[in-house]
């Protein structure tokens, strides 16, 4: 951890800003890592952090960020892959965590930004606002390397571990309800073609 050896919990983790954390993640990427940005604000902030060919910006398909990232990680085991999930999206597809664990996906890290709400549709509360701890769920699914980021420095340290060591990983960060820093250019064909070219795949 950044400041001490005691692991953060959802209750003790600092509430941070998704746009800031996304920029911190992207700044640490240096080996053509793939990043799958989940629907809505997650990919909006990924877009605003600087367009990389290795970024895939999901338009729709809620709940499929981790499964899409799994597909990329399985197809290209030499490439580090990050999935940027929201709490509501991950709750829709919790079974993916067990599959990631069972497949022993060393090159995959799931980052979940948790603000306890479906922010983009009206801030309706998700179950993480009351009873569900996504790190505890991930550990129960077999993802032993799952942790809450205590603060921004700890988030960066956890990302560095995911970049340098064997996964799979789940990094959870509590975030505020601020608006994203931008809006993704909604051109599905261009997004797909650019990403596939960056992966070395035929369109």
Task: Give a written overview of the molecule.
The protein is α/β, with parallel strands linked by helices. The protein has one domain (18-198): Rossmann fold, CATH 3.40.50. It has eight helices and eight strands; from the N terminus they run H-E-H-E-H-E-H-H-E-E-E-H-E-H-E-H. The chain has helices at 18-27, 41-48, 65-75, 87-91, 95-102, 134-140, 152-164, 188-198, and strands spanning 34-37, 55-57, 81-86, 108-114, 117-118, 124-125, 146-148, 169-174. Strand 1 (34-37), helix 2 and strand 2 (55-57) form a beta-alpha-beta unit. The radius of gyration is 15 Å and the shape is globular. The N and C termini lie far apart (42 Å). The model has no long low-confidence stretch (mean pLDDT 93).
What is the fold's blueprint, element by element?
Blueprint: H1 18-27, E1 34-37, H2 41-48, E2 55-57, H3 65-75, E3 81-86, H4 87-91, H5 95-102, E4 108-114, E5 117-118, E6 124-125, H6 134-140, E7 146-148, H7 152-164, E8 169-174, H8 188-198
Parallel strand pairs: 1-2, 1-3, 3-4, 4-8, 7-8
Antiparallel strand pairs: 5-6
